[in-house]
Design the sequence.
């Protein structure tokens, strides 16, 4: 089906320097064209897409493990609802609602919608949908700065998945309004958005990173399908075309440095990482291919190249009792070569799940074998801490220390008071000032690996992690808090915020880990990087 190109009512029109005059003509309509014909077009598009709504009833009966997760979600939501309802996040130090940056748009509420639906929390879900209808539009009109990336994956993604699950038209309308505001961020000479944007005046701030610009695509492409408005696809496809062109010219191994310059180019001096600021770019290479019904092979080829190079250059065996496999970073030396950093970020623990998902969709068997090895390392990062909770990063000693950065070599940190060997940790060190902020990556990978292998070990590991969250992070008044010094048996609360991803991702993935495979099956859905499920449109 040819993509009809329409501009929705309320879209702020602009002519970015990268958008050609012919494309701009196709991407816009006159005011005269926009009245009854546009509404008729949108209604037809809406009617056609109604057949793609979620058809399975939400859960009302739970297994023992599921029930524990539901109780955790109810407890987390109770704290948010009582002290922070309608605000971005719950501040666990003051037990008040606060903005995540400085434009408070109900981040946790919208991020949690699909989790509540799937768990059968009907009253909470309907109350939140009412807030989206009556309050969210006013919130968007207030001044303030948001992260383009975080707002896209959490808020836009949350609205789109809630629309798919519920079929409530006003949720799609809210998604369109938000996307039109976010679309102002593409109004740069290069078409590459800056990191932050004021939703009211469209002014952008700060350089972006690889993950920030390479993780907008699923959300805007899905919205383009739902609204038959190809503008959204044009914006984010331009970003990918720019990145893949640079990859072809300068980075033939498929591994891209994480910083983006003011001109929208890749900064070759920055590190290469599957952790912070790089991670979800690679995730979305795979998922854009899957989401295209495996038609858009340029993403498959880029993904395969990157994973092959990752295995060759960024995966090492660690010295220790557990024979662990680690995924480190690559830093740039003065002579232009790169050194391996023998640390593993918790953020990189999404990689086992990504590799297993790739295998599920036809990648070679070694992807699954590497996924299993890295998953063991991620679990050991939890299991060898006294609290049962992983730190945000761990430092290892690797077998072959050639081209290994001394700065990140655990062997050199044993006598450093800033690093703790921990009473139990046999394989790695963590910084003394370490923390766990309720991140989802490890349990995300457990869920996918369980669905691909049906090995009960992955469920047992998930139970241990859930035990640790309940024991160390639960707040008596309601909600959960991140913790500091996880190498101690009794870590203390970090007095920060309950991140919206705890309900949206961590607890949702734990629920799915203990659920049957037909709840959001992997051959019918793609999860965005915030765990919001989008149905794969069959061509």
Sequence:
């Amino acid at each position: 089906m040819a993509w009809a190109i329409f501009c929705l009512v309320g879209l702020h029109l602009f002519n970015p320097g990268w958008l050609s005059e012919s494309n701009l003509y196709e991407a816009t309509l006159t005011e005269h064209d926009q009245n009854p014909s546009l509404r008729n077009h949108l209604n037809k598009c809406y009617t056609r897409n109604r057949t793609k709504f979620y058809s399975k009833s939400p859960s009302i009966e739970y297994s023992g493990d599921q029930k524990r997760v539901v109780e955790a979600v109810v407890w987390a939501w109770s704290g948010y609802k009582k002290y922070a309802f309608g605000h971005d996040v719950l501040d666990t130090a003051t037990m008040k609602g606060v903005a995540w940056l400085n434009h408070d748009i109900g981040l946790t509420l919208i991020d949690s919608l699909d989790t509540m639906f799937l768990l059968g929390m009907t009253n909470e879900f309907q109350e939140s949908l009412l807030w989206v209808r009556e309050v969210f539009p006013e919130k968007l009109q207030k001044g303030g700065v948001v992260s383009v990336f975080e707002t896209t994956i959490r808020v836009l993604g949350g609205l789109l998945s809630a629309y798919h699950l519920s079929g409530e038209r006003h949720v799609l309308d809210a998604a369109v309004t938000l996307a039109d505001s976010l679309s102002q961020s593409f109004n740069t000479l290069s078409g590459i958005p800056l990191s932050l944007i004021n939703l009211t005046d469209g002014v952008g701030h700060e350089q972006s990173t690889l993950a920030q610009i390479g993780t907008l695509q699923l959300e805007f492409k899905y919205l383009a399908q739902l609204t038959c408005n190809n503008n959204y696809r044009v914006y984010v496809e331009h970003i990918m075309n720019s990145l893949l062109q640079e990859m072809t010219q300068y980075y033939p191994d498929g591994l891209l440095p994480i910083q983006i310059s003011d001109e929208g180019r890749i900064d070759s001096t920055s590190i290469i990482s599957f952790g912070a600021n790089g991670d979800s770019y690679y995730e979305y290479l795979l998922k854009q291919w899957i989401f295209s019904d495996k038609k858009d092979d340029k993403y498959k080829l880029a993904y395969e190249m990157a994973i092959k190079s990752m295995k060759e250059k960024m995966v090492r065996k660690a010295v220790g009792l557990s024979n662990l496999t680690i995924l480190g970073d690559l830093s740039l030396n003065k002579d232009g070569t790169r050194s391996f950093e023998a640390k593993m970020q918790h953020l990189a623990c999404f990689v086992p799940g990504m590799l297993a998902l790739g295998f599920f969709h036809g990648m070679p068997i070694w992807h699954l074998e590497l996924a299993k090895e890295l998953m063991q390392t991620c679990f050991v990062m939890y299991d060898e801490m006294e609290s049962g909770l992983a730190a945000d990063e761990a430092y290892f000693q690797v077998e072959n220390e050639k081209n290994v950065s001394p700065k990140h070599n655990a062997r050199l940190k044993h006598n450093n008071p800033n690093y703790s060997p921990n009473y139990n940790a046999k394989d790695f060190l963590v910084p003394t000032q370490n923390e766990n902020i309720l991140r989802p990556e490890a349990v995300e990978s457990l869920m996918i690996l369980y669905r691909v292998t049906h090995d009960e070990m992955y469920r047992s590991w998930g139970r241990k992690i859930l035990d640790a969250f309940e024991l160390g992070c639960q707040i008596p008044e309601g909600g959960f808090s991140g913790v500091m010094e996880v190498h101690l048996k009794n870590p203390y609360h970090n007095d920060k915020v309950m991140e919206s991803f705890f309900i949206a991702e961590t607890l949702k993935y734990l629920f799915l880990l203990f659920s049957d495979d037909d709840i959001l099956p992997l051959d019918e859905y793609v999860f965005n990087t915030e765990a919001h499920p989008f149905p794969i449109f069959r061509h």
